[in-house]
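Supplementary Methods. Inverse-folding protocol.

Structures were first reduced to a discrete structure-token string of length 265. This string, shown here, constituted the complete conditioning input.
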């Protein structure tokens, strides 16, 4: 399995002949308004450009997977991403809650049940509820779902989606025991309310909950995500987790084999 970090929550997962684009935010740097206004410095999003390798990576994509997309969550599916998916006729997997919304955008949609395990290529995919903020700010969010992906002869993968560290997340780790867990670690917050995804503290807690591989993203690409890669890397280093806790740079590819986890997929 290969996981390529493109930007923010946008990644590409490759296993066998399948190349899956997750949560495409493909807009040019600085083309989307800020998410925080009660600050001295207003910065347009995305804060960084897509990596130079992006076009070549996208050319290989066979499918797309969306964690959430309604209520203005452009950082997981923006207009450029929608247009690209439509023009390339890429099949899009999504929770049943998002099917009608995405079909209205002209996309070819494959619904995923939130109540039972779903077939996914030669394996399965299970949906795990996300909590994308609490209180008033939580009511403004589309919470969406994370995904546990099991493919024969590949490491198991848990894409946490945009979520805080919740009992559902803890139960997922305990029940599924994924080989790789990919988390949002940017500590995103709006002008009101608390964090809406994991921040530094939750990201460190994830390294304590699982003794397997953790990959952190959702970093340094949006104006409302304060956590920096170097501060998370420092926290990882002092805990001696460098061999299993990864913070990929935009454009970086991580490669994992089932053998390193002592499993056969």
């Amino acid at each position: 399995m290969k996981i390529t970090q493109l930007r923010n929550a946008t990644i590409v997962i490759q296993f066998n002949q399948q190349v899956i684009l997750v949560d495409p935010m493909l807009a040019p740097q600085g083309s989307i308004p800020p998410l925080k206004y009660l600050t001295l410095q207003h910065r347009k999003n995305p804060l960084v450009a897509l990596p130079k390798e992006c076009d070549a990576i996208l050319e290989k994509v066979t499918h797309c997977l969306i964690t959430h997309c309604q209520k203005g969550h452009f950082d997981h599916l923006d207009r450029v991403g929608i247009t690209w998916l439509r023009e390339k006729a890429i099949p899009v997997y999504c929770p049943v809650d998002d099917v009608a919304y995405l079909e209205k955008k002209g996309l070819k949609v494959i619904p995923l049940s939130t109540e039972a395990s779903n077939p996914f290529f030669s394996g399965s995919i299970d949906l795990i509820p996300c909590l994308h903020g609490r209180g008033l700010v939580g009511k403004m969010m589309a919470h969406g779902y994370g995904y546990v992906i099991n493919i024969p002869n590949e490491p198991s993968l848990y894409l946490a989606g945009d979520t805080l560290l919740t009992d559902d997340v803890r139960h997922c780790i305990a029940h599924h025991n994924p080989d790789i867990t990919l988390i949002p670690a940017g500590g995103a917050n709006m002008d009101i309310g608390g964090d809406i995804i994991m921040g530094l503290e939750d990201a460190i807690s994830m390294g304590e909950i699982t003794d397997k591989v953790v990959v952190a993203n959702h970093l340094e690409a949006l104006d409302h995500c304060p956590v920096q890669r170097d501060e998370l890397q420092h926290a990882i280093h002092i805990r001696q987790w460098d061999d299993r806790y990864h913070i990929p740079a935009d454009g970086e590819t991580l490669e994992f084999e089932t053998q390193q986890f002592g499993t056969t997929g």
